[in-house]
Amino acid sequence: MRVPAKLNLQLAVGPPRPDGYHDLVTVFHAVSLFDEITAEPAGSDRVSVRGEGADRVPEDQDNLALRAAAALRVAAGPADAGGVHITIVKRIPVAAGLAGGSADAAAALVACNELWEAGLGQPQLLDIAARVGSDVAFALLGGTAVGRGRGERLTPALAPATPYHWVLAFADGHLSTPEVYAALDRLRDAEAERPAGKRAPDDRGTEPALDAALMSALRSGDARQLGRALSNDLQPAALSLFPALRKTLAAGLELGALGALVSGSGPTCMFLAASADRALDLAASLSGAGVCRSVARATGPVPGAVVMPAAR
Ligand code: C5P
């Protein structure tokens, strides 16, 4: 299987729900940075991980890909479904705001569906994916899609097949998604306690809403408009926990990016370039500017988890 990383072109976050999650409206966008996953029959379930950041990925039952395989077995596995050995080759950095773990889980679902000939169609796989994690369903679907609820209720975005050229700046460090959401709640609580008149507009309690300017940019395929419309409610929280990212974002904009944003819960920063050539220039300049650990280029949108022909 090959499965892409995701960016959030918009991430609007509501107040915390009783179950600890936050209602979102987000625009997911799958980009050409892929993990590779292989599933083969085994005596019992196990996972091996190598590649970028592999030492940070659990190889026990906490591994999201193994949890996805177990969920599929319970939902639809044949009585004689044996164990599965999942091998993950990581290129999507871990704990980077790119949903790499969710991508691996989505690939594991599709792979085990094939391996066990469970015969589930996409709607049923999407259902199981949504229970495994908030971003797993999108990794199955890919493309560009609006996510609601925890992010698992998806509507594909109708947009021309314009490729966008992205530069990703990987940080020297990690951020935990729950910690970033918690930091956002604290920032919003602190803001609500300031005297009226000194407060920023209060967005607590308001329903997150889809950004019309962003959707119009996507419909027109205009990268300039898209660059201006990128937004992420988690960005102030990510910056409060990882202040060095301010410099990274500023450097990218100074070097001519059409837009700059922390990706998801961070700490990866994403930059939109006007063309493939501009992305190449931007990537080279950013990596020379010393504001991140490493840089990659990617295009989007790309499809979600797909089975690859077996290597010969
Ligand atoms: O669903 P997933 O396991 O990917 O979420 C990781 C964590 O991110 C959750 O435990 C929660 O703290 C936070 N989260 C949230 N609201 C969402 C999605 C994730 O608070 N919509």
Notes on the protein architecture:
With 312 residues, the chain is of the alpha+beta class. Helices cover 35% and strands 27% of the residues. The chain is built from ten helices and eleven strands. It has helices at residues 64-76, 100-115, 122-132, 136-141, 177-193, 212-220, 223-229, 235-241, 245-254, 276-288, and strands spanning 2-16, 22-42, 46-51, 83-90, 144-149, 153-156, 164-170, 231-232, 259-262, 269-273, 294-300. Strands 1, 2, 3, 4, 5, 6 and 8 form a seven-stranded mixed β-sheet that branches. Helix 1 packs parallel to helix 2 (100-115). The two termini are 15 Å apart. The mean pLDDT is 94. The site of cytidine-5'-monophosphate has 12 residues, from strand 2 and helix 5.
Hetero compounds = cytidine-5'-monophosphate
By helix and strand content, what is the structural category?
Answer: alpha+beta
Fraction of helical residues: 25-40%
Question: How many strands, which pairing sense, and closed or not: the largest β-sheet?
Answer: 7 strands, mixed
Alpha-carbon distance between the two ends = 15 Å
Query: In DSSP terms, counting alpha (H) and pi (I) runs of 4 or more, how many helices?
Result: 10
Count of extended strands: 11
Share in β-strands = 25-35%
Give the overall shape. Answer: globular
- Name the average pLDDT: 94
Radius of gyration: 19 Å
What string gives the helices and strands in order?
A: EEEHEHHHEEEHHHEHHEEHE
**Low-pLDDT stretches:** none
